[in-house]
Structure to design on (1334 residues):
């Protein structure tokens, strides 16, 4: 049993603080991902765009295995409403409101967004979906959440300084073990390892891979475009090798059960390098950002505990008669995880209790304003007190420093004084009471707050065991699905055979867990390929209907060709033979005026349209730039030849399972 | 507007009478009194009424979902007569939104129905009531939107009822939410605590909102327009019931028996009585005074009228949801009378073993379920039985005590039978076991451990202005929908004055169109249809058989000998609508459905090589006759497999029938 517990503690538990931080970071990733999609809402998620819902469902009618609730929303306004609801769901997930419910809803929305237009699916979608699905089984709302705050408020009703200074009730509960904890870490490790295993081309070995990858304009960020010509070749080569090396070591480091403070530290560095590289320099959807969010999961309890240094003890003198002040003190107590704050009611000052206060701290002063006493014996009031208070709290110290800046300090003081003057009115308006709140009639203070024994009833044990068994079964099936999809869509040296199981592949298809982990594998694109539309509008002028700018046929403005991962994936998918029928809707969309018409909310009246893929060869490191530009008409060719077998392996094509698409009729 | 709960005590009864000789109240005072008079009569709803309505409507929604689930593959999936992608390609309405549109294949549609059923069940139980109330409304309207071809007034009633209920606090009573809230606020730690019977004020505080007004007045309006719109000659002559009972596509077997044996004068009387009852219902529902008598009378009349309709006609959800709607007519005074009556009949004193945690738990459960205060708790004898019932001077123990306790609860007599059935008749043995070994049960559940103290933390209420803002927003939205409802009443009813008719702006049309909360009320108005009809398919399989794929048997193309067609509401309404010219666009998916018939049966020999889709119709017999007249067939669609030749020696296929409109018979669409 001790061995089992030891293993369970290392593999089946993630620190609640890590989970809470992951929720916040991943919530931001989801919100950012939604904003990116929102920019192209009419194009990809409404019937005005490149794939109306009926056309999508018609094409999927035989193969099925794709579900999206967004199929129910046809018009642009309906899709807008759906996105607004999705935004709220992601926001509540980020804030940790009804966390389990909103985690499930967030995963549902993410899967649905990917399912609404499968031609736009990429590696970012798959990774985000995998993380979201396993996150459902983890207690993400235990820390840094509104739920945790509400639970804490409900579990103790402090009414005076003594209760506020009793920190026993707000201690962390021990998180329950779950297979999902192991599974989600394995997902992160497997994804990076699978990428490294498939990046076996010559450019990865020679260290030139990033040189090529960073010159593929449709896949990179503005930062990459501005830096790629300034970075020395040696640094680029080192970076490439470090990146691949980091991808290799993440999984082994995550699985080491001992010296976790150091092994996990290394894993953080490795995963951070991978995540930061893909997030900052490449536009692969949520891929890089999801890896960065997953960094939080890697932080072990030992590192959190080690971070509890740098105490900054303060005493806070607050107004006992003000309901709002008491409520804020209760909130402060819950934010004060380092237990730096000691609360003193103003009544104690008025009564003349021996508090060892400086002479300038008078009863009149503490009735008028909050007073914070720092360890050096100085008393701070108004904005200064707020600044000191925030600096004593974990994660909010920076805000305290900001408040102490000249100008901001004066502004804060003015606002504080206005609120302080009306604090009793505000308290009444908020239903918090004011003036002489009664002493707590709560539990006998001579007893410990928690009076129940540690004995667990057989019924509770049975219930927990059953819940664990059921959850483990579901997580196990989900992980098997993940493995099956990974095997089916990646070239891996060893296979379990799960990738041959149709039922698991079907489940993966429904979840849009396509798992194209081979980013830039085996080689990054050797040719830079961008989409340019040339639309002749009524007055004879020519316009790129996706950007609203004059068509850049000379590739003079690389920034103009960054249309984002949705378009990159969509165009790559459209090159395949079996998706030829989808081009008709693209033509219709562009002829109507594309994004320019979307923004103006009226048809542009394009009289003549050319949809060109401009292809240039990326020069080798140190070689002169090849100025020849090949123009390929995207819509006229019945089925365009693949640019090269290497292009976008893993993310440049529509990742598909066996039944993903059938020929369009 | 705010809830009565927030206002404090319930609104007092205010009588506005003529002022006497003394100086009368000021105009402002009169206005205030008028507002209070109006609010007390039309803006309040008792939480018990809302709780009961939730349960009844929730159960009806579950039943309605199951009814549709039964035909899900044929009517709601891609394997059916109207695929999802085709509906989205050619939506029936300007404002088409259905969650079912996201579910395409048959397995997916089954998941959708299961999800809908779970939502309705949670709504019925009162679990996260507000959330599931809204979800129930969305699923109900989605079901309607997925196949508008089969929509009738009943579907609109479902939409309206669930829509208005979503604005009301239906979970305040008789719900899991209410039970949880009460448990959170107060916990009886001893039998003496139980005896004091904590009754939170929100149990009986009336809710004040425009939604209360809307939901009751809308019900009255249904009858107002049902009467006003029935100005046709059949209603005047009293022949409506006769004609209606001869609509074979709609009637049940009971109606067939009735039409064959009921004398015509009796049918005339029934027709006139229907009009009188509907007129009376409008008055009884909307009348502001004597509601203690008027409302129960209206409920009884509605149950009678719609119950009769429900057993004679296949109208889908209409009759049953109207009866469900009538539960909202109950008022506080009725509940007080019901509770007093229940107490008189079933009051019981329960003695609980004071030292047994199990007895305390049992007492808490009974107290939570005892909505009528029929149970009095007292401390029993130490080391005595867990539960002892004292009833009319007689002391009962064992199973008799438990049955007495159960009987004292609302619906108790039924619960006694249900418990006996569920326990497979072992209830006596179970009780004996529990009484013999309470300590083992307590140990198993951990009830022998000390309970942690109940913390009723003061986490801070919502600020008053936030509450006001929330209520204000809700009432503003309701006011908007009331305006929409009034506009729809004018727009959708033929009998409203033409001068009032107006063009509805987009926002208003969208607000009415998405949830499909229309207000056109005129069942069998101004006259009932006299044309009866049904769809039939005359198809040939590849092995030469002649069949109707929908029935699996030989095609029956003669309607005149029908004695009720035994069709469900969905099927008969589908055929009645698909024949219309405006729905010709949906013939294609019907054809696709028929052409893929052998794929569903799994037999290649069932492949259809030709089919003709017919609308069979006749005229209902005139009074005094039983045999329909003018029977004819109208070809809706005809198809022959391209390139197919019948094998030598077998009869050749008949030529394609000529497609025609099936709309003209009665001279009106």
């Amino acid at each position: 049993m001790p061995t089992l517990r030891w293993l369970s503690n290392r593999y089946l538990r993630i620190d609640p603080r890590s989970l809470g931080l992951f929720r916040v970071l991943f919530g931001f990733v989801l919100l950012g991902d939604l904003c990116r999609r929102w920019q192209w809402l009419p194009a990809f998620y409404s019937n005005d765009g490149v794939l109306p819902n009926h056309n999508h469902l018609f094409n999927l009618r035989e193969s099925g295995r794709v579900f999206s609730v967004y199929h129910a929303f046809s018009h642009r306004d309906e899709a807008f409403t759906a996105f607004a609801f999705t935004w709220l769901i992601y926001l509540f997930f980020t804030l940790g409101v009804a966390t389990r419910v909103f985690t499930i809803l967030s995963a549902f929305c993410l899967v649905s967004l990917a399912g609404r237009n499968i031609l736009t699916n990429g590696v970012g979608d798959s990774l985000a979906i995998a993380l979201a699905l396993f996150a459902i089984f983890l207690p993400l709302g235990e820390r840094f959440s509104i739920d945790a705050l509400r639970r804490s408020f409900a579990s103790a009703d402090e009414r005076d300084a003594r209760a506020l200074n009793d920190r026993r009730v707000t201690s962390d509960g021990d998180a329950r073990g779950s297979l999902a904890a192991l599974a989600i870490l394995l997902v992160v490790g497997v994804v990076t390892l699978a990428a490294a295993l498939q990046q076996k081309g010559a450019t990865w070995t020679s260290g030139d891979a990033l040189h090529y990858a960073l010159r593929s304009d449709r896949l990179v960020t503005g930062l990459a475009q501005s830096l790629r010509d300034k970075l020395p070749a040696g640094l680029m080569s080192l970076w490439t090798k470090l990146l691949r090396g980091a991808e290799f070591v993440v999984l082994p480091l995550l699985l080491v059960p001992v010296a976790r403070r150091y092994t996990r530290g290394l894993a953080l560095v490795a995963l951070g390098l991978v995540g930061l590289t893909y997030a900052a320099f490449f536009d692969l959807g949520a891929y890089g950002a999801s890896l960065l969010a997953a960094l939080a999961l890697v932080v072990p309890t030992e590192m959190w505990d080690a971070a509890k240094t740098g105490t900054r003890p303060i005493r806070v003198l607050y107004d006992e008669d003000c309901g709002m002040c008491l409520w804020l003190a209760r909130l402060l107590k819950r934010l004060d995880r380092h237990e730096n704050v000691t609360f003193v009611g103003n009544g104690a000052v008025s009564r003349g209790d021996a508090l060892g206060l400086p002479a300038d701290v008078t009863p009149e002063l503490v009735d008028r304003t909050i007073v914070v006493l720092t360890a050096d014996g100085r008393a701070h009031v108004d904005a200064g007190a707020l600044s000191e208070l925030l600096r004593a709290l974990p994660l909010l110290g920076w805000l305290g420093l900001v408040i102490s800046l000249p100008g901001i300090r004066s502004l804060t003081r003015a606002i504080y004084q206005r609120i302080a003057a009306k604090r009793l009115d505000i308290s009444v308006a908020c239903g918090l009471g004011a003036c002489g709140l009664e002493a707590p009639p709560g539990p006998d203070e001579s007893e410990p707050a928690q009076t129940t024994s540690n004995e667990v009833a057989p019924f509770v044990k049975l219930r927990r065991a059953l819940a664990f068994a059921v959850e483990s079964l579901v997580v196990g099936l989900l992980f098997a699905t993940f493995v099956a999809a990974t095997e089916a869509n990646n070239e891996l040296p060893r296979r379990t055979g799960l990738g041959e199981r149709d039922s698991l592949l079907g489940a993966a298809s429904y979840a849009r867990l396509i798992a194209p982990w081979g980013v830039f594998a085996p080689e990054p694109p050797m040719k830079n390929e961008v989409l340019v539309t040339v639309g002749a509008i009524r007055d004879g002028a020519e316009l790129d209907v996706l950007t609203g700018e004059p068509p850049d046929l000379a590739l003079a403005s690389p920034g103009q060709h960054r249309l984002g991962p949705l378009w990159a994936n969509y165009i790559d998918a459209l090159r395949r033979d079996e998706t030829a029928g989808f081009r008709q809707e693209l033509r219709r969309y562009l002829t109507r005026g594309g994004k320019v018409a979307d923004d103006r909310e009226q048809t542009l009246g394009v009289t003549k349209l050319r949809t060109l893929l401009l292809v240039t060869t990326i020069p080798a490191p140190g070689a002169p730039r090849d100025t020849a530009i090949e123009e390929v008409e995207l819509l006229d060719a019945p089925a365009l030849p693949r640019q090269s077998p290497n292009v976008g392996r893993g993310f440049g094509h529509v990742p598909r399972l066996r039944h993903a698409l059938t020929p369009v009729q | 507007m705010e809830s009565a709960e927030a206002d404090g005590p319930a609104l007092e009864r205010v009588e506005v009478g003529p002022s006497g000789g003394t100086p009368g109240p000021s105009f402002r005072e009169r206005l205030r009194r008028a507002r209070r008079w109006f609010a007390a009569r039309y803006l309040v709803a008792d939480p018990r009424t809302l709780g009961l309505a939730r349960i009844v409507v929730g159960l009806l929604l579950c039943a309605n979902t199951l009814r549709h689930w039964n035909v899900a593959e044929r009517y709601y999936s891609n394997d059916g007569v109207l695929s999802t992608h085709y509906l989205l390609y050619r939506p029936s309405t300007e404002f088409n939104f259905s969650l079912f549109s996201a579910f395409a294949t048959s397995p997916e549609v089954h998941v959708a129905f299961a999800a809908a059923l779970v939502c309705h069940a949670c709504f019925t139980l009162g679990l996260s009531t507000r959330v599931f109330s809204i979800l129930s409304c969305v699923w109900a309207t989605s079901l309607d939107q997925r196949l508008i071809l089969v929509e009738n007034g009943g579907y609109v009633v479902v939409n309206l009822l669930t829509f208005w209920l979503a604005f009301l606090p239906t979970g305040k009573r008789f719900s899991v939410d209410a039970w949880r809230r009460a448990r959170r606020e107060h916990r009886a730690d001893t039998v003496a605590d139980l005896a004091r019977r904590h009754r939170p004020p929100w149990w009986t505080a009336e809710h004040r909102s425009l939604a209360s007004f809307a939901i009751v007045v809308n019900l009255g309006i249904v009858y107002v327009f049902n009467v006003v719109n029935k100005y046709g000659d059949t209603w005047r002559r009293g022949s409506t019931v006769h004609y209606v009972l001869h609509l074979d596509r709609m009637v049940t077997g009971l109606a067939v028996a009735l039409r064959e044996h009921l004398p015509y004068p009796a049918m005339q009387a029934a027709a006139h009585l229907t009009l009188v009852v509907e007129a009376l219902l409008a008055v009884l529902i909307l009348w502001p005074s004597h509601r203690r008598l008027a409302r129960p009378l209206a409920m009884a009349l509605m149950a009678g009228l719609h119950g009769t309709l429900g057993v004679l006609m296949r109208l889908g959800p209409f009759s049953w949801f109207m009866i469900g709607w009538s539960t909202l007519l109950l008022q506080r005074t009725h509940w007080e009378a019901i509770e007093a009556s229940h107490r008189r009949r079933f009051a019981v004193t329960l003695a609980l073993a004071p030292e047994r945690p199990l007895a305390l738990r049992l007492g808490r459960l009974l107290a939570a379920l005892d909505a009528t205060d029929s149970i009095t708790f007292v401390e029993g004898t130490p080391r005595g039985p867990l539960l002892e019932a004292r009833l009319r001077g007689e002391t009962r123990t064992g199973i008799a005590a438990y049955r007495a306790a159960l009987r004292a609860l609302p619906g108790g007599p039924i619960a006694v039978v249900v418990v006996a059935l569920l326990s497979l008749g072992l209830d006596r043995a179970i009780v004996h076991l529990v009484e013999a070994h309470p300590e083992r049960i307590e140990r198993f559940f951990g009830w022998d451990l000390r309970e942690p103290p109940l913390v009723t933390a003061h986490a801070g209420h919502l600020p008053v202005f936030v509450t006001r803002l929330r209520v204000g927003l809700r009432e503003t939205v309701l006011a908007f929908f009331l305006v929409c409802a009034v506009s729809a009443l004018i727009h959708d009813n033929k009998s409203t004055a033409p001068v009032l008719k107006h063009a509805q702006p987009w926002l208003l049309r969208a607000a009415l169109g998405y949830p499909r909360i229309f207000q056109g009320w005129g069942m069998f108005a101004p006259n009932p249809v006299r044309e009866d009809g049904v769809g039939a398919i005359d198809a040939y399989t590849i092995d030469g058989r002649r069949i109707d794929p929908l029935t699996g048997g030989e095609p029956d193309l003669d309607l005149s000998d029908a004695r009720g067609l035994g069709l469900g509401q969905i099927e008969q309404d589908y055929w009645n609508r698909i024949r219309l010219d405006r729905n010709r666009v949906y013939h294609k998916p019907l054809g696709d459905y028929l052409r893929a018939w052998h794929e569903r049966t799994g037999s290649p020999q069932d492949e259809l090589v030709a089919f003709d889709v017919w609308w069979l119709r006749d005229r209902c017999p005139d009074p005094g006759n039983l045999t329909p007249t003018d029977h004819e067939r109208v070809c809706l669609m005809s198809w022959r497999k391209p390139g197919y030749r019948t094998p030598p020696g077998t009869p050749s296929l008949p030529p394609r029938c000529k497609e025609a409109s099936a709309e003209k018979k009665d001279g009106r669409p």
Notes: The interface with chain B takes residues 52-58, 60-61, 64, 67-74, 78, 112, 150, 153-157, 159, 323, 327, 429-432, 442-443, 450-453, 455-460 of chain A (CB under 8 Å). Chain A has a mean pLDDT of 86. Residues 18 and 296 of chain A are 5 Å apart (CA to CA).
